[in-house]
Amino acid sequence: MTNMKKLRAIVLIAVLSGVSGCATTNKDPLEGINRGIYKFNDVADRYAMKPVAKAYKAVAPTPVRTGISNFFSNLGTLTTIVNDLLQLKFAQAFTDAGRFVINSTFGIAGFIDVASMDNVPKHQEDFGQTLGYWGVGSGAYLVLPILGPSTVRDASGLFIDTVTSDPITYLHNTGQIRAHNQVRAVQLLDRRTQLLDATDLVDNASIDPYAFMRDAYLQRRASLIQDGLVPQELLQDEFEPADEEDAPAQSDLQPSSSADAVLLQSAAPIEGANETTQVVESATETESLAATTDTTMAVEPAAEISESAEMTPEAIDELPPLLEQADQSIEDAPTLESDAAALVAGVDETLITLEAATPAAQ
């Protein structure tokens, strides 16, 4: 009797899946009902499931949580293998079967993901993807109580996978109902813990979490059916591409103009610096000339005295004041570093004049 009920449910699901292939482009005709169930799930998650998941994550060590996740992932590989064969992906089925054997043996019942350590690829297939692979449409979007987003096709596939290829279901079929419920509770807790960061992102980043969740789910399922490729219609947005005439062409860009502008900008301060340098040099030459003239005028009286053949006593008495005046003129001359060379040149010329005058006086 139980088998007849299961058979009727499978036939009903197949009919619903066939009808979903003829559905309209409106993917969410039941939005009002779905939003109500979404609010129920959100309240139940916020006040019951999410706090328990956070407590589990805080208490259980990371290796324990990773081992439990690997265990349930390894059990799900059986469902993947069955659907690989239904989609005629024999090479992938062989790889997934080898992965299951490796993790079930060397990985201690799947608690250690040894296959991933050996770089064995991991796939995920279910009966909903199998129906989509063979052309069955997704049907209307659904939000299932507690389980979350789905579609008519995916909900049908979930039921068939649970009944046929889920090892946990066999615990219930063999009468171990208590063990079945405990394992299911742990599986649900593990899944909710893995989604803690994702739900926080949805709540913080989206204006309408329901619409965000719906679009993300539909795109992900379409990508899984096409083995990682997203259909073009799901990538279209409301923004129109920019006109080619408005966009600047690559040939219109003039890097030389920008380079010339940079050169002009860098040349402007250089020209100003050159003008300043010329002014400073002119001032320096003027000061040097003035200092040389003062020194020459101060020393000329002494040269004239030395040129006289006979030194009178009056001239000898007048000589010290003249020397003091010359020394005072030298002390009053500018002592800038830039004028040092000019002063030395003037003194050299004076000394040469005195040396030439001394033999004549003798």
Count of distinct structural domains: 2
Q: Which parts are unreliable, with pLDDT below 50 for 5 consecutive residues or more?
A: 10-24, 237-277, 289-310, 333-337
The share of residues in helices is over 70%
Could you tell me the mean pLDDT? 74
- % residues in beta strands: under 5%
Count of runs of 4 or more consecutive helical residues: 15
Order of strands in the sheet with most strands: 1-2
Q: Radius of gyration over alpha carbons? A: 49 Å
* Largest sheet features: 2 strands, antiparallel
Along the chain, the helix and strand elements come as HHHHHHEEHHHHHHHHH
Roughly how many Å apart are the termini? 153 Å
**Global structural class:** mainly alpha
Q: Give the overall form.
A: elongated
Count of DSSP strands: 2
What is the element layout, followed by pairings?
Layout: H1 2-20, H2 31-59, H3 62-86, H4 90-105, H5 114-117, H6 127-133, E1 141-144, E2 148-151, H7 152-164, H8 167-173, H9 177-194, H10 196-205, H11 209-225, H12 232-235, H13 255-307, H14 313-332, H15 340-361
Antiparallel strand pairs: 1-2
Give the key terms:
2% strand; 362 residues; 15 helices; two-stranded antiparallel ribbon; 73% helix; single chain; mainly alpha; 2 strands; 2 domains; elongated
Could you give a quick summary of the protein structure above?
The chain has helices spanning 2-20, 31-59, 62-86, 90-105, 114-117, 127-133, 152-164, 167-173, 177-194, 196-205, 209-225, 232-235, 255-307, 313-332, 340-361; strands spanning 141-144, 148-151. It is mainly alpha-helical and 362 residues long. Helix 6 packs across helix 11 (209-225) and helix 8 packs antiparallel against helix 9.
